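Summary for the steering committee. The consortium agreed at its last meeting that each partner would contribute one worked example illustrating the joint modelling workflow. Our contribution is presented below. We chose a case with several input lines so that the handling of multiple components could be demonstrated. No manual editing was applied between input and output; the record is shown as generated.
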Amino acid sequence: QVQLRESGPGLVKPSETLSLTCSVSGVSISRYYWGWFRQSPEKGLEWIAYVYYRGSANYNPSLRSRVTTSVDMSKGQFSLNLTSVSAADTAVYFCARDGVQFAFDIWGPGRKVIVSS
Amino acid sequence: QSVLTQPPSVSEAPRQRVTISCSGGSSNIGNNDVNWYQQVPGKAPRLLVFSDTLKPSGVSDRFSASKSGTSASLAISGLQSDDEADYFCAVWDDGLNAYVFGSGTKVTVL
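What follows is the complete predicted structure of the assembly.
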């Protein structure tokens, strides 16, 4: 059974970096592409990034200047860094598996991140 | 404002049918595959439909989807109380170079 779970700080100060990790179990991380998303009442569901174990990634142009991702195959994890955060980055962040061409079929439960001093 | 337009809400009685529309343009729905997600409040989205009309295993036959031109739709027949959720369409947009979601439609079973 494939499972994903997001982890990381639930509170980040403005101007600092938001860092989240998605732990994948039940399947090799090398077999699929993976995605990061966030959801807030103000912006709805928003795609952040699309990553592959070999290091290739595709980012939402609206966030590209602040986003980096990485993959740790040995741990079965992939990570998201979002720099220079503001209150507008407060959201529930999800990681998900791309089952076929941007159809994300398995999701983590989500991690609520609040940006506040 | 999303580039994909969905009605904010639809409601119908149990055992009836509802249809949720998703209107886009030539750079998204008109040129790429549409996916549909169901989300119960407080939970993660669940993939209901991919590649315009296909369903993952485990998705009820009561859900069906279609696409024509720059619009797509999701139909739920035989409405049940556990169909109450938010439903989102999603598709790659060639102009924005981004995967975009509709603003979501809340389905209420009266």
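Chain A has a mean pLDDT of 96. The interface with chain B takes residues 35, 44-47, 50, 60-62, 94, 96, 99-105, 107-110 of chain A (CB under 8 Å).
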